[in-house]
TrEMBL record:
Residues 10-262 form the ABC transporter domain. This is Peptide ABC transporter ATP-binding protein. The keyword Nucleotide-binding applies. The keyword Repeat does not apply.
């Protein structure tokens, strides 16, 4: 994908998110520590592309997605939607932003009201945004159900009457019914069978082309992100370690953490990696992250400079960025 010919629809600049940790007296004596969930993350989304965000559990992927949506207010940094600061938006502008940027949850059942029929649930955002009369809204509900591979009669059922794959289709239908420009997909297929995963992914790719959608796809599955993404960002302990076009990243990963992730995939072409990297130990605590490069405690190539200096994210090749002292 040629980024030079594309327009950035959403820009994330130096995003930070900290969560306070309170003692036994709660908020009375203030926070005794802070969880550094996201640290200095910068991302650009281009219209019509799929940006994959990959990393281990606890790396800050989901927090980044929620901070972009404003569901979790950022501690520092800016999120610009069409060159407009989301934090500075008026109520009417934020209403438009909510309509244009939607979220698909990892567990759709927990986000579906068990007491409401699906049709009523899908119609509710249309009522809130005053879109169409009752007949037009019902027609829109039936249309969006067909779009995600379900039938109009499903509108009269309750969430517990659907399978896991069908519920994920419902979660996608609820996001699509507002005709959004961007959809943040937070682990949308991680809890599904492989066959159902392929159906959902193929449907996402088809809908993206038909509706000109921009996707931020959050996952820990390397094979899934390779299939669906145009560009990929690798996260570790709240930071972006490497970012590149999908083909470039898989052809020649540069960061040791990226190489370790790829070498853990059984069917990855190991001829592109000189050796298999096995990570030792656990991901450090985000309450007290390591000094210097946050990956140096597990990196087999770490030097003294890695322990003291924070590596800057540098563009070492066109479109290929990496945060590592060892990469020229």
């Amino acid at each position: 994908m040629e980024q030079a010919n594309e327009q950035s629809i959403l820009t994330v600049s130096s995003l930070h998110k900290q969560f306070p940790v309170y003692g036994s007296f709660g908020k009375l004596w203030g926070a005794k520590a802070y969880v550094n969930a996201v640290t200095d993350v910068s991302i650009q989304l281009y219209e019509g592309e799929t940006y994959g965000l990959v990393g281990e559990s606890g790396s800050g992927k989901s927090t980044t997605g929620r901070a972009i949506l404003g569901l979790t207010p950022a501690s520092q940094g800016n999120v610009l939607y069409r060159n407009r600061d989301v934090a500075a938006m008026s109520r009417e502008e934020m209403r438009k932003f909510r309509k244009d940027v939607q979220l698909v949850f990892q567990d759709p059942f927990s986000s579906l009201n068990p007491r409401k029929r699906i049709g009523r649930m899908l119609e509710e955002p249309l009522i809130i945004h005053k879109m169409g009369d009752k007949a037009e809204r019902q027609e829109q509900v039936f249309r969006i159900l067909k779009t995600v591979g379900l039938q109009p009669e499903h509108a009269f059922r309750f969430p517990h009457e659907f399978s896991g794959g069908q519920r994920q289709r419902l979660g996608l239908a609820r996001a699509l019914i507002m005709n959004p420009k961007i959809i943040v997909c937070d682990e949308p297929v991680s809890a599904l069978d492989v066959s159902i995963q392929s159906q959902i992914l193929n449907m996402l790719k088809r809908l993206q082309q038909e509706l000109k959608l921009t996707l931020l796809f959050i996952t820990h599955d390397i094979s899934v992100v390779r299939y669906i993404s145009d560009r990929i960002g690798i996260m570790y302990l709240g930071k972006i370690m490497e970012e590149a076009l999908t083909d470039d990243l898989f052809h020649e990963p540069l960061h040791p953490y990226t190489k370790a992730l790829f070498s853990a995939v059984p069917d990855f072409n190991r001829s592109r990696l000189k050796e298999r990297i096995i990570l030792r130990g656990e991901i450090p605590s985000p309450i007290s992250p390591p000094s210097g490069c946050v990956f140096h405690t597990r990196c087999p190539y770490a030097t003294d400079v890695c322990k003291t200096d924070i590596p800057a994210v540098r563009e070492v090749r066109p479109g290929h960025k990496v945060a590592c002292h060892l990469v020229d």
